[in-house]
Structure formats: structure tokens, C-alpha cells
Amino acid sequence: MIDAIIHYFIWFSPYLSGFFWASLIALEVSFLAIVISWFIGLAATIAKGAKSRWLRWPADFYIWFIRGTPSLIQIFIIYFGIPHVTGIPLSPFVAGVTALALSSGAYVAEVFRSGFSAIPKGQTESALAVGMSQVLMMRRIILPQVVRIVVPAMTNEAINTLKNTSLLSTITIIEVTMFAQLSLAATFRPFDFLIAAAIIYLIMNTILSQFAAWYERRYSLDL
Amino acid sequence: MQPSGTDTQRTLLQLGSLRKSFGENVVLDGVSLSVSAGEVVSLIGPSGSGKSTLLRSVNLLEVPDSGTIILDGQEVQYRNEGSVWRNARILSDLRTSVGMVFQNFNLWPHKTVIENVVEAPIHVRGIALKEAHDKASELLEMIGLLDKRDEFPRRLSGGQQQRVAIARALAMDPKLMLFDEVTSALDPELVGEVLDIMTSLARNGMTMIVVTHEMGFARHVSHRTAFLFKGRIEECGESEQMLANPQSPHTRQFLNRVLHHQ
Fold this sequence. Notes:
The structure holds two protein chains of two kinds. By secondary structure, chain A is mostly helical. Helices cover 83% and strands 0% of the residues of chain A. Chain A has eight helices and no strands. In chain A, α2 packs across α4 (92-117). Chain A starts with a helix and ends in a 5-residue tail after the last helix. Chain B is of the alpha/beta class. Chain B has helices spanning 51-58, 88-97, 113-125, 129-142, 158-170, 188-203, 215-220, 239-244, 249-261, and strands at residues 11-22, 25-36, 40-44, 66-71, 74-75, 79-80, 83-84, 98-101, 176-180, 207-211, 224-229, 232-238. The radius of gyration of chain B is 18 Å and the shape is globular. At the A-B interface, α5 and α6 of A face α2, β8, α3 and α5 of B.
């Protein structure tokens, strides 16, 4: 029995470094996409709440479009569609990060919006009453509270983005799913490589949600 | 009671014919009021009479449709050719010299007690960290909560939170303090500790406008009391005299109702 396990690992070990590098790519892409999606989401939230319809309408359209279309189509539009129309080629990496960030940003915007609406009006008033500017109030009083409120929902969204990196296998990025596919095609052992890929996603997401849970405990606003 | 201090005659705040409507609803119907330095003025009146709106107009949390606000000899330019003029500089200057305390305390829950107090001095005024903390500690000592300096507001009782809110406003060295029904959200047994601090501020010469339902405070601490009714100051006079012997039937009716509930 032990022998069999050892043999299995000896057989599998050449693929470990491949999976390692593929995981790094997935982490890199999702890290960038997640951070960019926060800015896109925040901008969309603020635009949606703006007085001018020239800010509101584009934000509404963006959220409506992203929420109503599959991520895979969005990725294809960015990677194949945009270069075709503009003539400017995009690397798979840039297209992948952009597509995932845009795709997640719309959901992030909705999360932020619920976060902002959870802040009592009195918080704004007491900040303004001591002479804060809108920007200072946002930075020092409102956003720190919003961030604490939205951590659980944002964690879900980050996990989604991380999982969605698997879609980037369709635009030639060698992330975890792509590497598993390449390996199983060469060895005809789909079960082994797909389970390995699943385990890797599980590890990454578990670490992510543990970190979020720690952050939530650390900065809790609970009464 | 007469205002104490040397510069009693100096007018600190002068409101001239303030008007404000929300749609069809006229909330301020031409209110004029002037407050001397060191004077404490109570605003009383039924709910919806415009007393909170009047108070909130002073620091432009509510922007009047028309009328003048003159603070310490300077007219506040809150409108430009009829439209609201949101000049950040003007707003900030006005609000740093006018402190405000709210009914629901509105402390910032993600900051500790001392952080609440030093926030604006450091980030709005640009005062050095050390100096701001020293001053904040002094204020916390004054309100009797120095031992709570590192607690978060949620750990404090309502009365303690409101005292911190007063310290937070005082930390900016305001010329004028506005109190908006600051004891209305408190359990009855906690009202006293907040009124005590307001009383000692008043005795120390702070200029205050106080929207209140505490007739005892109006009568014994404030120099003048104004009764608002339907967006107008119906009656205004020396507190003791006015509350004992109101001239207007509306004031009488209101006082009857309030006093019989207490």
C-alpha cells in the first residue's frame, strides 16, 4: 500500500513544478484583477450615486451589461473582439486581468453600494460638522467603515475571481486549469490532474477566506 | 441670568431673515436671531417648528434658501447669485469655528474615544499630533472620561458617548457650540451627566445655542429662550421671565403640555 503511494508520487512529481508555476500565474492574475476591481467598483458606485446623468448612465450600463453576460463572453470580447476592432493587439495576460477586473467590478460596485447605504447619515454629518471636506470625510470616516462592512461579500467576490481564472485557459494563459488540461492530454489520466487542479483551487481559496475571516475579527465593528 | 464675561456686548452670531422650505413645506419663515459672545440661548418649540433646521443652518448642514448668517462680524457667503455656493474653504472655516453635538452622538465607531477627539484637530486643523493628544486628554479629563480614552464608543453608555461627542466638538476650539436635542436619545438617568457638562461650559463663558426639551436647563442655565412656532420665532426673551410668564398663547399651550409631562 505504502509502496503504491510512493510510486504514485514519483510518477506525479514531474508535474508538481508545472502546477506550482501555473498556480503562481493564477494568483498573480487574480490578485491584480481583484485589486483593480475594487477601484472599478468604487468608481462605478460613486458614479451611480452622482447627480449628473452623464456619470450615472455609463455606470448603470456597465453594471447591467456585466451582470447580464457570461464572464467567458466578456473575456472573448476583450481578447478577440477589441483587438479586432481597434487593431491594437492585447497580450493574453493583459486581456485576462482586464476582463476579470471588469467582470468582477460590477459586483464589487453593488457590494460597495450596500456598504455605503449601511452607514448612518449621522456619520456624514458629524464629519462635515467638524469641517472635513468631502474627500477627507470619505477617506477618514466613511470608507474605513464601509470596508469593514463589505469584507464578507468582497471575500466571496474575490473567491469568484480566483475561480474564474480557470476561464483564462481559453485564451492561452497557462494557469492551473490549462496546465491540468495539457497534462491530462499528454497522459490520458484526466481524473488525477483534474483532482489535483481542484485541490490547488481549494487550498488557495481556503487561505483567502481564512485571511478574510481574520481581518473581519480583527476590525469588527459589531456592537 | 445675565451673560458673564467681559465682551458680553459683542455680537457673535447674527441670523437675518433665514428662510427655508422643503418643497411646499415652509420650515423657516424668516427667522432673525442674534447671539452675544458668552450667551446661552435655548430654542424650544413643538416638533416641526423649525428649531433643528434653524440650528443646522448656522453651520450650513442645512442651506437656507435666503437670509444672512454673520459670524463674528463676517458674513458667510453661502450663496452666489442665488445658487448654493459650496466653497469648501468657506464651509470648512465656518464649521471649524462652530462646534456641533447631535441627538444620536454620531461618534465614529471605528475610532477609539481619543481618536474621535483628535481626528479633526489633526486632519482638519493640522495641529501637531502631540499637541492634539495633550489637548484631547485635558478635555477627556474635564468630562471625566480620561480612563476611557482607548475604548471604542460601543463600549460606552449613551451618556458617556454624548460627553465624548461634546469633547470632540470642543477640541476644535469653537467660538460657538450648537446642541441639537442632545439628551433626547438618552435614558433618563443619564441625562444629568450631559446637562452638567453643558452647564459648566455655559458658566465658563461658552457661547451656546441649545435646542432642547429640558425646560429646567432652558430656565436655569440659558440666558435667553426663544420659542419657535411654524418656522418663526414667536417669542424670545430672558429665560426665567419668559418661561414663567409667556406672552403668546402658543407658547403657553406648548409649555403647559411639556411641563405637565415632566
